[in-house]
Design brief:
Elements (H helix, E strand, L loop, with lengths): L1 H20 L24 E2 L2 H5 L2 E3 L7 H4 L7 E10 L5 E8 L5 H8 L3 E2 L2 E3 L2 E3 L1 E10 L3
Parallel strand pairs: 1-8
Antiparallel strand pairs: 2-5, 3-4, 3-8, 6-7
């Protein structure tokens, strides 16, 4: 019984690791950065705090949840979702990776965040690629 539990645990660790390694919607590993590339380039985005990036927000449409969720009394009414985002020099969310949150509405939340627009982040007077954490508190309706 202990061997079986250990094997299941190791399998779970492997599956969790593989899902963490690959970003949502891409075949690129999340950590794949080229430290020899210039800071702020697409291959080596500048790491910027979520608070600083939040201050650069121009447009942040809220997720719209389906009526089936709002009508389900067992569904949570609100929650927080956390994602890792890569933002282009033009201020568009180019890559998004789910970190945590209620997974039943993951796609709805991610679709909304992919529409967010930011003022370009400037590094040494030049707009650069940015990697940051995005946290969104949502009301699922009801």
């Amino acid at each position: 019984m202990r061997v079986r539990a250990s094997v299941c645990f190791l399998l779970w660790i492997f599956v969790a690791s593989v899902s963490f390694v690959f970003a949502q919607g891409t075949n690129e590993p999340v950590w794949r950065k080229d430290p020899s590339a210039p800071a702020g380039s697409e291959k080596n985005p500048a790491r910027v705090s979520s608070g600083v990036i939040a201050g650069n927000a121009i447009k942040q449409p809220k997720p719209v949840f389906p009526a089936t969720h709002r009508d389900n009394p067992d569904s949570p009414r609100s929650g927080t979702s956390v994602m890792r985002a890569t933002i282009s020099p033009e201020g568009k969310v180019e890559r998004l990776e789910w970190i945590s949150g209620w997974s039943a509405n993951q796609q709805t939340v991610m679709d909304a965040v992919k529409q967010w627009i930011y003022k370009p982040y400037m590094l040494n007077g030049k707009a650069v690629w940015v990697e940051t954490t995005v946290t969104i508190s949502v009301d699922f309706g009801g």
